[in-house]
Give the backbone structure.
Amino acid sequence: MQIGFVGLGKMGLNMVRRLLKDGEHELVVFNKDKAPVDKALKYGAAGARSLKGMVSKLQGPRTIWLMIPAGKPVDGTIEKLIPLLSKGDCIIDGGNSNYKDSVRRAKALAALGIDFLDAGTSGGVWGLTEGYCLMVGGKSRAFKRCESVFKTLAPENGYEYMGGPGAGHYVKMVHNGIEYGLMQAYAEGFSLLEASEYNLDLEKISRVWNHGSVVRSWLLELAELAFEKDGTLEGIKPYVADSGEGRWTVMDGLEKDVSIPVITLSLLYRLRSREVNPFAARLLAALRDEFGGHGFKK
């Protein structure tokens, strides 16, 4: 299958490589920075210097996969693609877009006769070798036409049609919220182990837990790798970023009156990790001193 691929970042380029490996797909790639395009050419892709040049190399009905940051970059790219595409063509957004944006984009493109699929993609930098878990929303006929792409990218049983427009990104949003909670639980548990009176080997513990334990998981395997590199994690700053999906999950829970305290607290912990000399903590110290004369550290 012919695929136009836009966005060759740390996941996009590896996805192109995986699609080219079995020889069943032909890739025409575009990226704002030319260096990743040159790398893709070495793997067998055809390159383009513009979106127009990429589209011109594709035969209809065209399939365009976007692997770019959520929000304005996606909207801007779609706006540029619209005059270049024809009825029956399909745009797939494989990034971490808000599902409400995907519903809006699908509706606008449908009015022009262009299909839109939202493909929630999980796998990170390991996807090249392990495959990508794909959760796809949109029209079922568009999914079926593009299914060979999902089959190549995913491991066995690793992709599925979720439902109408937005369903794929909605499921991926909740997936990432769960991911926040799981990571937080591991972080807290290992923090307690590290603080114990025993001289515990955290790499050894994570390794043995991954064999038969009910808490075994891929995340725990990654923890084992992290401890292997740095047993105390002294070389890592305690600053935890978030890319939006956890926030959207919490907001969706509030909108639907669904209680998700673990995911909510895991998000709040990430926000707290990024505060330097937080005002709230200073006020707590000041109040304690005011009512009890407990003093505070300057």
Summary: Strands lie at 2-6, 26-30, 46-47, 63-66, 90-93, 115-122, 133-137, 159-163. The first strand starts at residue 2 and ends at 6. The first helix runs from residue 12 to 21. The mean pLDDT is 96.
